[in-house]
Amino acid sequence: MRLLPSSVRTRLTLWYTLALALPLAAFAFASYLIFSHTVRARTDAFMSDALTVFARELGAERRAGPSLDEAMRRTLREVRFREVDIVILDGSGDVVGTSPHLAGALARPRPASPPDPASLASALGSPPAGGERMGTVRRGGGAYRVLVRPLVEEGRPFRLAGVHSLADVDAMLGRIRRLFLVAIPLIILFAAAGGSFLARRSFRPVSALASRAAEIGASTLHERLPVVADDELGELARVLNDLLDRLERSFEQQRRFMTDASHELRTPAAIVRTEADVTLSREARPENEYRASMSIVRDASRRLGRIVEDLFLIARADAGHLVVNPAPLDLDELVRDTARSVKPIADECGVRVELGSLAAAPVVGDRDLLGRLVLNLLDNAIKHAPEGSAVEVSLRAAGDACELSVVDHGPGIPPEARERVFERFFRVDAARSREASTLTSGAGLGLSICRRIAGLHGGRVELAGTRPGRTEFRVTLPMEDAAAA
Fold it and tell me: What is the tally of structural domains in the chain?
């Protein structure tokens, strides 16, 4: 069960609204608490100052000479405080005097049955010795702040109390609460609407990119997405265009691969079919003609099998399923063995295979695959070497790697073909080489396979140099210690 909507735009709006609502609600709550505390603290300070002033004025009145009761009455009559009523209680809690007409807190609008001043003043009990007691008392549906201090006159204990109605404070705090309860949802609502608008506006280019990308198919891979801005969306469009470039190249390579493969397979298949038709068209033929025909069929079948084998090897390598069985081996011995195996073909072509300096080269690799690499390079050189020339092979150590060099003295590779010699099915002009040898397919897959095998062993194959009369291919492979590291 999904708790969030599937639309990224809607989720973004919700997260944006939530990110605004939570801090805003926390700010409003904290502001309310701070404001409420500040107002109540100022009220308490005002009440404390009022009682201090009243006690000072009462002392001054007593020094003027009247009796204690008269001094209290005069002070209560003359010293008045806005919003604070003064109540004096004796030691037994009876009211001695109050502010006249309750001009302060108890005279303000209040419930129909106002609380008794004595009950408010005595609600907190007697203050501690030498101290005071302050608290909030609720009576008759109203709240009152009460401050009580001890007062001693002529050896008699009294309680001096200040009473302040919290009606105005509560009303003001209520208005603030209502303001927050109305304003915050409205702000969140407008923020959600604005966030939704901005999300729709921001995702409009994404929708356009998605629509445009959906229109691109296998037949229109040459088309690209528009890059309209130098921002994240522009970067996304560039990345998608790069992906389309790779897809187009991959499709083109696949198309060319299929075309070339079908062409290469068609030729030996046609030879087999033609020879079979010719052989079957005559009931009686000399034995030598049958043998010649079967020889042609055999060679064509072998070439067909080699092409299929090469294609299968490349397909497995492309899919990452080519099994490599690495083991320590001496590359110099492998080169000698492979050179001996190609000698009959080289002799048939009138080409010598000359082994130059072969340094000891212990490597870790698949013997069959590395043998295939060396065989393909030698076969390629034999095909392009002119009759009577030599194919030169050398092997040397180069730091933690070894370099195998195969040189032929053929016509060289033209500049326009040098970048493509490792492509599948690519062959230099047939006029520059003799008929394909019987060692490989001759379908233009040999060098491509060499590059694949070298890459699987952490090495590389490169065209080291070419000119009329000399072409060198070089293989670089890590030595055994470097490969183990």
Answer: 3
